[in-house]
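User: Sequence for OmpA family protein below. Tokens please.
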Amino acid sequence: MINHLDSSKTRNNMKKLYSFILIAVISFSGFSQSSEIKKADRFFAQRAFMDATDAYENVNNKDQEVLQNLADSYFYTNQMQNASEVYKNLFLKFGEAVAPKYKFRFAHASMAVGNYKEADKYFSEFYGSQYDFEKFRKELDTTVSHVFTSNQVMNNAASADFGITFYGDDKVTFASTRNAERPLYPWNKKPTLDLYTAKTDDEGQLSEIVLFPGDINTDSHESSATFSKDGMTMYFDRTNDKRVKVEDDKIAHISLYRAKMVDGKWSNIEVLPFSSDSYSVEHPSLSADGKKLYFASDMPGTNGSFDIYMVDVNEDGSFGTPQNLGAGVNTAHREQFPFISEEGVLYFSSDGHQGFGNLDIYKSEDDFSETKNLGATINSGFDDFAYVVKEGEDTGWFASNRRGTDNLYNFLREDYTPPVVEIDERETNTETGRQQLKDVGNIYFDFDRATIKKESEVTLDKVVSIMTKYPTLNIEVGSHADARGTDSYNMALSERRAASTLEYLVSHGIERDRLTSKGYGESMPLNDCTKPTGCTNAQYAKNRRSEFTIMN
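Assistant: Structure tokens for OmpA family protein:
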């Protein structure tokens, strides 16, 4: 009896000891995980994203905030495969609890790794409208004005190089992290940026690379120079010394500076009056006549993130009021790295216009009301930016991180005219001015319907017959609505009509990649019926149509 009681007491004591050890281990593990998260959060707040990725990866049970920050850390350091995988896990676990901005980044990361279906899904959800990359790419192939042949200038993985610009007749200036004597930048663990000069040869290769002379470079970042035509004035970026609080972070913004050539030296270095400690002003580009300075800024009044601005440079060297270039150029996202060519063509980079993923290079002309992507021969799924060109020579440079880090590329561009398929069945539509299939005409729809009518099949079968006869012929199905109904409803209705027309052609043997469908809503009526009342049913019916436009 005594032995039994002693044995029972021993077992109870052992259980208590094991329980205590288990609780201690769990508590220590929890404390360790909490400590790791705090360390990672500290790195993330300091924008030390390389360190943040390592710290967040060491967290075993990753909650929503950890996954968000880990994905962003990969995204901001151009590790797109990792970013895409973590974003995907984030949405699988937490779904609609995740803020829309992560859909935007996930879509761009998906574009970078070639997962276009995933990108379409999340862009569509983010923008609230249908996003179709393959359709965009096919249409762009018929409208680009140039094709580009490009080559990486230097195979230099150790440093980041970008922001190249013309400097005199045979020199360039660019920004680089190659100066090992500068402080390390926590974001990417590379030295802060300095400006360099180099000589160029006929093939666009660089030689005699040296630090930019004088007092331009400091321990802060300097980048993105631009020069007056006479070479006596330069503008450039410099990061501010002062850090200001933005939400939970302390950020040093970027200011624009001007320097003058005096007695063979760059001096009179001064910050421009519209720069600020409270926002960034960056990436200057001076017009050929020196009268207008273009730049990017997130100053109050932008459409969202960074916008492109223009400011007048007066005769006495003073400046006018910066002017936002407007919605034709600027979106709610990033527009940066403007370059104004000798011919007044504006080139810039954006991740807000539809493109190939992340920053793409675009151009805008005349009143800057329309923007065009430069196409697949220069843009990639990664950041492509800081484009400069000599229009008359069709040569220039740009930067891209498509191979892991920012690198310089030179290019040669050639005029591009999409190949024309020679067919007998081609004619110009006198009402729209578009090239269409001869003697085919349009098909029409019942009011508020997108269903193909039986009588339309004769016309559609003619389209099938012609496209079968000419196997390289590409067609756009453009569909329309009458003026009855709201603009948004009619746009959606016309898109359904275009889709049903395209699906009929595909179901009768036409390859899907030879067809594009586009809804125009009520924006292109063939008569004066532009209001929901005042016309007969027959007059309204003329605008409920699908047209077949030859794209090549």
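Residues 96 and 542 are 43 Å apart (CA to CA).
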